[in-house]
Structures are given as structure tokens and as C-alpha cells.
Amino acid sequence: MGEEEKQGLRVRQVIRAVRRRWSVIVVTTLAIGGLLMFYMEQNQLVHIYGAQSSVIVTEENVNMNTMTEMINEPLFMDAVIEELSFPISHSEMAERVTSTSGEGSDIIQIDVEHTSAENAVEIANTITEVFPGVVSGTIGNVEVLPLSTADVQVSLDNPVYTPTNNLLIFGTVLGLLLGIGLALLLDALDDKIRGERDIERAVGLPVIAGISRPSRRVKEPDPAAVESSLQEEERSS
Q1: pLDDT digits (tens, 9 = 90+) for 118-147
Q2: Which residues of the chain fall below pLDDT 70?
Q3: CATH architecture type of domain 48-161
Q4: What pTM was estimated for this model as a whole?
Q5: Which of 44, 63, 210, 218 is the one with CA 20 to 30 A from 195?
Q6: Helix (H, G, I), strand (E, B) or coil at 172
């Protein structure tokens, strides 16, 4: 058997398995898709918006790493929460805030992520307002000034994350592939003889004749025909 014939045989085997086990493929695809839909519903995948603001440290000989890390400290986060009157802990607030400063730069950039663009902007701008006072009360005479503020419209126009149906599409494709794989496995393990082709593959010889299965129904005699036959026998006797 040539290579092309072998490939053709494999394709036919796949098609046969899909036709025989189509219900397995459908159930597997629906099961995987349903699980992913449940996951998406439970995790409430929503838009995430970002907001950016910045401050500048005008004093020289200031450790910018210390200044940058101060923004995520509980002392400062509590001051921001108190100013905003948000019902969250300082650790939850710190998870939404990222502060960075480039090497040799006097500017600290504040990035905030939130499911609400308005809240993200409000947090970012409040940080730039509260930070100078906290620094002054903690470190001393260090001048920190707001440099830029966040804008709600900019945040709305540039979401950090937008939920899509990619996960559901991936799950459907995955379920389909797993279903086909399971169908091929079940078909390979199935050694039942269903027709002439199965016999030919099993013995390696062509089928030249077949015996039809007899019908299990027994035809009931017609009462009128039976009576007529009896009358004929009586007259002949």
C-alpha cells in the first residue's frame, strides 16, 4: 500500500469515527463550552480602566526609590482612602496602584487600574494631591508638586482590558478537538463487526457473498384463505 493510499485510509477512518461517534463530539464540546461560560459568569469579566497622574520632586539629593515606594505604603494608602471615603483596605487600594520613576528622573508616575474609569481617575488625582502633604509630614522639608492629572474621557477611550469572547471560542475549539480525539479512541477500541468493510479489514480478504438476515416476523395466515382451502378439501373428498 502506497503512502497516498495510507493517508486516504486514515482520512476515511477519521470520517467514519466522526460519523459513528458524533454524539460524543457534541456532548464534549457543549460540556467544555458550558464550563467556560460558568467560569466567565462566576468571575464577572468586566472592563478595566487605567488612569495616570504624576508628581515631581523638586528637591535635590532625595532618594527617588524611597519616594516611589512610599506611595504603596499603608500610611499613605490610608490617607488616600480617608480622603476618598472608599470602603476598602489599604492592601486592596495598593493592588490597584503602581508607582514608577525612571532612572535619574525626578518624576513619579502613578498608574491606577479600576473597573470604573471615574474611580480610577479619582484615585490617581487624589494621590497627587495627598502625596506632597504625607511626604512633608514624614520625611520633612521635601517639596513635591503635582505634575499631571488623569482625565475620565482618556480613561474611557483607552481601557486596559476589554472582555472578549476569545475564551469561549477557545473552549469551543478545545471541546471539539477533545471530542474528535475521544471519538477516534473509542472507535479504535471498538472491535465489533458492523459490515463488509469491517470484515475485509479484519481478514484482509474481499467479501464475495453475503447471507441476508431472515425476517423475524411470521406472516399470519389469512382466515378467509384458510376457510376457502378447507372447503375445497371437503368438496374434493
Answers
A1: 999 999 999 999 998 888 888 777 888 999
A2: 1-9, 41, 43-44, 164-165, 191-205, 207-237
A3: 2-Layer Sandwich (3.30)
A4: 0.56
A5: 218
A6: helix
**Max CA separation in the chain (angstroms):** 140
Residue 58 · residue 141 · CB < 8 Å: no
Q: Where are the domains of the chain?
A: 1-44+164-232, 48-161
128 to each of 38, 57, 69, 124, 193, how far by Cα in Å?
40, 12, 14, 7, 78
CB atoms < 10 A from the CB of 81, how many?
20
Among 61, 185, 77, 174, residue whose Cα is nearest residue 134: 77
Helix axes 22-43, 3-20, angle to 10 degrees: 70
154 Cβ contact partners less than 8 Å away, ≥ 6 residues apart: 51
Cα 36 from chain centroid (whole Å): 6
CB-based contacts of 123, cutoff 8 Å, min separation 6: 51, 80, 84, 93, 96, 97, 112, 114
Name the residue with cell 478595566. 48
pLDDT given at position 196:
66
Separation between Cα atoms, residue 64 and residue 140, nearest integer Å = 15
C-alpha cell at 130: 495627598
Looking up cell 458550558 gives: 34
How many alpha carbons lie under 13 Å from residue 24 in its C-beta half-sphere?
A: 16
